[in-house]
Amino acid sequence: MTDPVYTGMPATDLGTEGWQKPWSGTNGGTCIEAKRLEDGRVALRQSTDPGGPALIYSRSEVASFLEAAKAGDADFLIA
Given this model, what pLDDT does residue 53 score? Predict the structure, then answer.
């Protein structure tokens, strides 16, 4: 059986409830929204395109990214 939740699926297929903006900048409202899924995975979508594709990450992938970002390993993205 194929997993019904996959990267690139329409974010609206994950429902409208539970999406949050964990951070927001001064970029005119263009934010990333996140939703924790029932199985612990995390979905991300673009706030200005809520029906667009969702990116799906495991809990450990999100934890690794956050730890690395806190350590400065992602600073090159904005340097």
Answer: 97
Closest CA relative to residue 64, chosen from 74, 75, 54: 74
Strands 55-57 and 32-36: unpaired
pLDDT reported for residue 26: 66
What is the value of pTM for the model shown? 0.86
Distances in Å between the alpha carbon of 48 and those of 33, 39, 43, 60?
10, 26, 15, 27
Phi, psi of 35 (to 5 degrees): -140, 130
Residue tagged 């001064």 (tokens): 26
